[in-house]
Known about the structure:
Number of domains: 2
Oligomer: single chain
Helix content: 40-55%
Number of helices: 7
CATH class of the largest domain: Mainly Alpha
Shape: rod-shaped
Largest sheet: 2 strands, antiparallel
CATH architecture of the largest domain: Orthogonal Bundle
Amino acid sequence: MELRHLRHFVAIGEEENYRRAAQRLHVAQTALSTQIQDLETELGFKLFDRLPRGVKLWRRREKTGSLEPAKQGRPVGGGKLANHRDFLIAHVERRPDITMPELAAVLEAGRGVKASPASLSRLLCRAGFTYKKNAAGGGARTR
């Protein structure tokens, strides 16, 4: 294996296209393809999945069963408040004028879970609650 083989592999992996990689490296596309095939033969496994419109790293398909990139970020879920959603909604329905700091204190006292008022507000908004202020300066949550 030579250093140029690795440079060619990286260029094809980044470009996901032999033609663009060849242009970037200032080599002929056929020479690039031949060198990658030689490298695959030397290593004993495929490096790329050749597609009608470019190439993808072979390992991705082998590992995930798909050529699509892995999803980034946290997995979809309800977070730590999901298990307490019904408890919180029931409490807000019983007392619509409760403030979020008060609701956070109720959650901590009743379930032993600490949550920020902003997190509680987001949960209630997703559940369809709105907050309306009245002329006296107070307010209430409604669905």
